Amino acid sequence: MFKKILIANRGEIACRVIKTARKMGIATVAVYSDADRNALHVRMADEAVHIGPSPANQSYIVIDKIMEAIRQTGAEAVHPGYGFLSENKKFAEALEAEGVAFIGPPSGAIEAMGDKITSKKIAQEAGVSTVPGYMGLIADAEEAVKIANEVGYPVMIKASAGGGGKGMRIAWNDQEAREGFDRRATRPPTALATTASSSRNS
After folding, report:
1. Whole-number Å distance between alpha carbons of 41 and 10
2. DSSP string of 14-80?
3. What CA–CA distance (Å, rounded) separates 147 from 140?
4. Which residues are 31's β-sheet partners?
5. 4-112 has which fold?
6. Do domains 4-112 and 116-198 have the same CATH topology?
7. Average pLDDT of every residue of the chain
8. Is residue 191 classed as helix, strand or coil in its secondary structure?
9. Region 121-129 average pLDDT
10. What are 50's strand-pairing partners?
11. pLDDT value, residue 185
12. Looking at residue 167, what is its pLDDT?
């Protein structure tokens, strides 16, 4: 059993983790940005560490700042909540290197599940039913239209490395498939891989 855990998150999820830890007799550490200085999760935790300015990209998702808070407080484990660093392979690896437990999946699972194509292949290999679709990279809008016609409309077009349901496009015809692909192509290069999945039977 851990004696002290750090919650690398804020708001409602942090409060829920703190309440559960308290029932289990585990001390908690909250982290907070400037904007959350007086937030409920900060007041509820046994300890709290300031980690930077209000924007999350300058505080909650900066791995080095979370790691420093862990060192300052001697936390034995980290609960990431959801969002932020919860699906970040580098964060899980940084914790492993420090000998701090990550209350979540191992880094290998995070990496595999972070890519929609890889995760779908793993599911199929495990015998899990998946929505029919295309399992490779799509080069351009015209290829997307060709594949959509093979799969059968309607299709969903999504960046393979996207997350949280962001950027999904439903296409009911060739024009919408072209537009959906072109909109996904505005994402960073690492997210250009796109899957097309039929929702006909879902």
Report:
1. 6
2. HHHHHHHHHHTT-EEEEEEEGGGTT-HHHHHSSEEEEEESSSGGGTTT-HHHHHHHHHHHT-SEEE-
3. 11
4. 49
5. Rossmann fold (3.40.50)
6. no
7. 86
8. helix
9. 90
10. 32
11. 54
12. 64
Q: What angle do CA 182, 187, 188 make, to 5 degrees?
A: 135
As a whole number of angstroms, the distance between CA 193 and CA 115 comes to: 9
Q: Which residue has the tokens 């580098």?
A: 90
- Computed on alpha carbons and rounded to an integer, the radius of gyration of the chain in Å comes to 21
d(CA 121, CA 112): 10
Arithmetic mean of pLDDT, 128-142: 83
User: Structural domain boundaries of the chain?
Assistant: 4-112, 116-198
Written as six digits, the tokens of 30 are 């909250």
116-198 CATH fold: Dna Ligase; domain 1 (3.30.1490)
164: which 2 tokens? 């949280």
The single residue listed with the structure tokens 């490395």 is 161
CB 28 within 8 A of CB 97: no
Q: Among residues 128, 191, 129, 186, which one has the least CA distance to residue 159?
A: 191
Three-state SS at 159:
strand
Residue-wise pLDDT for 97-116, tens only, equals 999 999 998 888 887 776 77
State the residue for tokens 């599911």.
Answer: 123
Q: What predicted TM-score, i.e. pTM, was given to this entire model?
A: 0.69
Q: pLDDT, tens digit, for every residue of 18-37?
A: 999 999 999 999 999 999 99
Closest CA to 14 of 109, 1, 51: 51
Give residue-wise pLDDT tens across range 145-195.
998 898 888 888 877 665 555 567 888 999 998 988 887 655 433 233 344
